[in-house]
Design a protein that fits this description.
This protein is α+β, with helices and mostly antiparallel strands. The protein has 2 domains: about 110 residues; about 230 residues, Alpha-Beta Complex (Fumarylacetoacetate hydrolase, domain 2), CATH 3.90.850.10. The chain is built from 6 helices and 19 strands.
Length: about 375
Amino acid sequence: MRKILSAVTALVVAGVLGVAWMAVAQAQTAAERFGLGTFKYQNRTFVGVVVRYPVAPQQIGGFVVELAAAAKAGNVTGIPNDLLAIVDQWSTVGPKVKQIVAQVAPTLDAKRPAYVYDFKAVDALAPFVPRLAFYGFSNYRPAPGTPPPATAPKIPPSMPGVWERAANDDRPQNPRLFMIPNTPEVFIGDGDPVVNWHADRRKDYEYECELLGIVGRPMRRVPVDQVKNYMFGYTNTNDISDRQARLPDPVPQDWLVQKGWDSMKPVGPFVVPQEFVDPLNMPLKMTVGGTLVQDSNTNQAWHSMYEYAAYLSNMLTLPVGTVIALGTPPGSHGGLGRHMIPGDVNICSYQGLGTLTNTLIAEPGPRTTTSSR
């Protein structure tokens, strides 16, 4: 368990300074980047605001503000105690969260309130369980220096009613996504172990560091150029995959068996609102067992997060809390030179989104599998 911080004296804001404080808050809010997550500290689970954290990939730090306690101290009401509910009500709750950020920010370099904790002292849980979950695949251009294919890829046609290609669209594929079971056992948080189920018989686990977008307004048939206004924010996800899939069964593809097991979708450590994120140009780094295996940028994706969301919204209504993963850049599918083994530490990090760390472990204890007989 991480080191527990000792309590410090709570900040008291004098009423006579209210007008001056609001002016300072408004000035600071625009510049103060923050994230939102679900955290555990001293056996208490709460929604927290993460501030002053490192922007560079693979760095860990910053502070976590316990949102309910900070709201009480600042006489701010109407903020739910659940992150998904906050996303649902962001149009009214968002300004209140920003008000709290502006209130707390000036205290971080001096005497911090008791409801502000060092990020390394808290446990970051999965931010929330998504209402729908879609993960992209084969969505990145080859790594620089990769020899071109011997035969030029054939440009696919439009998909009527789903994806209409522009006349000058020469990309070799249309958007490709699959669904993931949206359960709290599948979607785990920072620091939680990824379980290699039946590790004695299934040894082909692999990593895929991906950008995860969170829908903030219901979407149905939203044009690509308007999608930004429908996104709430972004976080990291590691699309853990079992490359063995159904083998030796001859069925060639089964996304559920490859990617839908409990613990296969680490997410976090927190969600950063879209106003602080450019999903079209985000550097990322992924290390496994201390080896750098992915070092790329979302600007190398064939289809952007906005295109993915628009594509999905052409088929179904995306509720608030839908998550969309962009696919993974080169460096997976053999970049480590081997499949993962229990003990490998996975560190997935996109610029400005914190750092997601999970360790692969072998399934503990006795195992049972339900048979067809």
